[in-house]
Amino acid sequence: MKLLFLACLSPKTGNCTTAERIRAHIESAGHTCELRDAADFKSSAEVASLIEQKPPFEGAIAIHLFKGGRLLLGEATVPSENTQVPFGVVFGGTDINEDVKVEQKRAVMEQVLLKARFAVAFTDKLKAEAEVFLLSQSSKIHVQPQGIKTEAAQSFCWSEFLRRSGVSGEDVEDLHVFLLVCGLRRVKDPLYLLEAFSEWHTENPLVVLIIIGPKIDPVFTEEVEAISKRSAGVYLAQERSQEELHAAMRRSAALVNSSVSEGMSAAILEAMDLEVPVVARDIPGNTAVVQHEVTGLLYSSPQEFVRVSQRLLVDGELRERVVANGKRYVEEHHSLDHEREAYQRLVDTLH
């Protein structure tokens, strides 16, 4: 079966990583799956024209109900029976958490969900939100958590990583590095903790915050760069490969999440798999995977972030508990094999 897969493919974003992984699952079942950036298409008519090229696509998948899904609603320039291929959708997170608040977008997403053969939500909570805000298509929505696989680079040099990130001094081995992994865009809110963290660093120079991730929003990236430079103890690192990022995570005191909205943070799950404590903002997407003081730590304000992080550094028993439980949680709920089987089964419904 020849499938078209639409996703937002900004370099190394969560959606991009997820799309590559799902494509591999589909192709391992013998299908052909062509991954295309949804941002390259201005209308569903353009996608319909692509679908009808010879040999035509027989089915389609999109990540994000609005950004990807709307392009599959089938407005062909030359109407034909093959215009609208059977398709499925994967919720991106911001579609259900943010875009449903905009009436025009919600109306489009309801049409997408109505016509889709299936929809995938990463969490039960995301499925419940979709059922509240969109026309109920409950039987179509399948909950399939993201599959997680980590691989840390063997040749990674921690001291060089710190030096290139701007961290100087001779006692780098004594530092407690908090690693905030995110694409630089407003929904990830990397500036949320900076003032409180700088105050903490002034009291304890051994704690530093390193922000690392792709520069997705150029204007916002400039803002983050400027504020980071004048914030004591805060550094902005150059983007690294996935393997190097995992190696950096493994050496860190904790993985930090400060997002305003999340579907399901792959970085959080990867940190758990790498046995790194997680300190995450208390929002629905995060609480679906982080249980406070069980699989990680949650905070609702910058001041609370500092308090729970200070506790993490001195309470060895707490640290061991959240690390062990986090690792177990990922192994039990985010199996790559289970994810592969689920998508292969769902793609079969497009025949």
What does this structure look like?
This protein is an alpha/beta fold. It has helices spanning 14-27, 44-51, 94-97, 103-115, 124-133, 158-164, 194-203, 218-229, 242-251, 266-273, 284-287, 302-314, 316-333, 336-347, and strands spanning 2-7, 32-37, 59-63, 87-90, 118-121, 141-143, 176-181, 207-212, 234-237, 254-257, 278-281, 297-299. The strands form two sheets. It has a six-stranded parallel β-sheet, with helices on both faces. A six-stranded parallel β-sheet has the order 9-8-7-10-11-12, sandwiched between helices. 43% of the residues are buried.
* Radius of gyration over all CA atoms, rounded: 21 Å
> Numbering strands along the chain, what is their spatial order in the largest sheet?
2-1-3-4-5-6
Number of strands: 12
What structural class should be given to the helix and strand makeup?
Answer: alpha/beta
What percentage of residues falls in helices of 4 or more residues?
40-55%
The dominant shape is elongated
Number of alpha- plus pi-helical segments: 14
The H/E string reads EHEHEEHHEHEHEHEHEHEHEHEHHH
- Averaged pLDDT: 92
Q: Which sheet architecture does the biggest sheet show?
A: 6 strands, parallel
Q: Stretches where pLDDT falls below 50 for ≥5 residues?
A: 76-82
Strand coverage percent: 15-25%
Query: What is the CA-CA span between the terminal residues?
Result: 8 Å
Could you outline the blueprint of secondary structure elements for this entry?
Elements: E1 2-7, H1 14-27, E2 32-37, H2 44-51, E3 59-63, E4 87-90, H3 94-97, H4 103-115, E5 118-121, H5 124-133, E6 141-143, H6 158-164, E7 176-181, H7 194-203, E8 207-212, H8 218-229, E9 234-237, H9 242-251, E10 254-257, H10 266-273, E11 278-281, H11 284-287, E12 297-299, H12 302-314, H13 316-333, H14 336-347
Parallel strand pairs: 1-2, 1-3, 3-4, 4-5, 5-6, 7-8, 7-10, 8-9, 10-11, 11-12
Helix pairs in contact: 10-13
